[in-house]
Amino acid sequence: xTPRIRGNDYTVLEPPALGSAWTPSLRASVVIPAxxxxxxxxxxxxxxxxxxxxxxxxxxxxxDNGSDPPLRxxxxxxxxxxxxxxxxxxxxRARNAGLAAATGDVxxxxxxxxxxxxxxVEAHMRWHHLAPYLSVTSYLRFSTAALPAPxxxxxxxxxxxxxxxxxxxxxxxxxxxxxxxxxxSPRPFSIHIGGASSANVRLFxxxxxxxxxxxxxxxxxxxxxxxxxxxVFIPDPQARAYHLGPSMRMRxxxxxxxxxxxxxxxxxxxxxxxxxxxxxxxxxxxxEVVVDATAGSYDEVRATVDGVLAGTVTDLAVVMTGPxxxxxxxxxxxxxxxxxxxxxxxxxxxxxGRVRLATTPPDTTxxxxxxxxxxxxxxxxxxGRLLEVLRGRERGxxxxxxxxxxxxxxxxxxxxxxxxxxxxxxATEGEDADDLVxxxxxxxxxxxxxxxxxxxxxxxxxxxPRAAYRARVSAQAEVERLNKxxxxxxxxxxxxxxxxxxxxxxxxxFRREIGALRKQISALRRAQGQSQGQGLRGIARGxxxxxxxxxx
Length: 552
Description:
Blueprint: E1 28-34, H1 38-49, E2 58-64, E3 81-85, H2 91-101, E4 106-110, E5 114-116, H3 120-128, E6 134-143, H4 150-155, H5 160-163, E7 166-168, H6 170-178, E8 196-200, H7 201-207, H8 218-228, E9 232-244, H9 248-267, E10 287-292, H10 298-309, E11 316-321, H11 340-349, E12 355-358, E13 368-371, E14 376-377, H12 382-393, E15 397-405, E16 408-416, H13 417-426, H14 433-440, E17 443-447, E18 454-455, H15 465-544
Parallel strand pairs: 1-2, 1-4, 2-3, 6-9, 10-11, 10-13, 11-12, 15-17
Antiparallel strand pairs: 4-8, 5-9, 6-7, 6-8, 13-16, 14-18, 15-16
């Protein structure tokens, strides 16, 4: 049975030790896009020629991306090496050409300036034999050493002798350390790098090829789509390679970030801190809301869609499903059209940028998908609260109970895309997707009324944006007034504290004076007691003497 990995906790897997007696069966396709730098490519291929992974299970595809002079295959190379030419510029296009030509079960990206250790491919492939939805990344070290000869690379058993001292891939190793090996990272796809990462071909079939519009940041964007396809990301410290020279980010990180962030923000909702605008739309929305237009009337569907669009979560798109291509509006007697409601819905939302018409729900790269039955309207912050539940509990599904009767229950569903994609990858006949998601991510039920859902006709009027603005301005003014009042009261409290301090000081002095008086009183009492005692003793002595009567 295919392992059910919970979240990104791949530690449940037990890969064989490197060099141990295990029998590989999967074929690896190493895809190397290259542009110029023949001497570095020669070293990359020399490193691949010395791999411990069986040569008959290894193919290498070098894609010349328009080099002048053209690249050639050196003498020292794996025997299953092919050279393709892709004249269209761009590393993404070159990789896609290699991906299309690959015949392996696993695609292993490798840059043409990366030299792998002898066991690098084996380190990757031992994981892929355990589950079909893994993405493995090597540990790179960046070397500025003089380039050795290909024969030295192919003949050594330790590349450190040739390339050390070198620098680590610091930000990746720091991320791995902070997240317990990525098992606790909310964005493990961030470590997907084209220099030395691999993934099962089934993941690429679901995620698609690389985006040629991404001139930078394409590795991160590809990693994000692999995640939405169900991937588990594994950084393997025993999969090691050397990068010849510093990376682009090391050379100019500020300018690289400026460009890559501009492109990644539109496509990777996982980097929410980059989406700072409160209401604009993005190519890949944070949430996709699916509403079946055939399951309710025009008014019911509209109530649901409008409720979604009026909420606090604006980073979303609504997919309204129905037989849109089959509609032919009745021109002579429109009121008698049996599909009039669908015609009205199409007309009503045709020019709303956040509403998309589809025959069936398409595959999505949005991280979350909400399914709502027509006639149920979410409250203003309903979706935001549901997202907090899903994120905070790291669940794969939050189901919302809307109604229940003798016929069954009515529910909405907020689904985590990667959870259901992974379930689809491993499901066998008869297995329920919800059960698999519960096993690997967890599921949770909430009450619809508590989360602000309203039945058709019961929803409160929408708050006009201008009215909301005025209310916010009024609230801010009230907050400022209250802050000033708080400052005034703080000043008064400070005066009272100062006065109380003086009182405490006076009270201490009074206590001292009272203590002194008490001592004086005690002394006087003792003195008085002593004098009274002496008088009484004198009287007693006089009484104790015998009386003598004198004769007169």
